[in-house]
Design a protein that fits this description.
It contains four helices and no strands.
Length: about 100
């Protein structure tokens, strides 16, 4: 009975993934109260994954997750500045490219 419970604890369950992604979503949305949950759930998931995979596979998996996180954060910060470009140059007295020029 005890061996069965221990074996069940070491399986990666869908609930583990769901809790970790839910916590990550809340933190990403700016609700930083869920940071402790993310660290706890992520640590449990990482421990279970590390027992199932070789060290090389674990490192490559973490690197892939980190790369995706960096890309998502980069896109999120780019979206904040999208649409804010303004033309602040002084066009008085300057020739326009492609505009109607005075022909001599």
């Amino acid at each position: 009975m005890e061996a069965q419970i221990e074996q069940q604890l070491e399986k990666i369950l869908p609930e583990d993934l769901a809790r970790t992604f839910e916590s990550a979503y809340h933190v990403f949305q700016g609700n930083h109260e869920h940071m402790d949950d993310l660290l706890k759930n992520g640590g449990v998931l990482l421990r279970k994954v590390a027992q199932k995979l070789s060290p090389t596979q674990t490192i490559l998996g973490i690197a892939a997750i980190a790369a995706v996180a960096v890309i998502l954060v980069n896109r999120a910060t780019d979206d904040d500045h999208e649409g804010e470009a303004k033309d602040v140059s002084d066009r008085d007295g300057k020739r326009q490219i492609g505009g109607n020029q005075d022909k001599k």
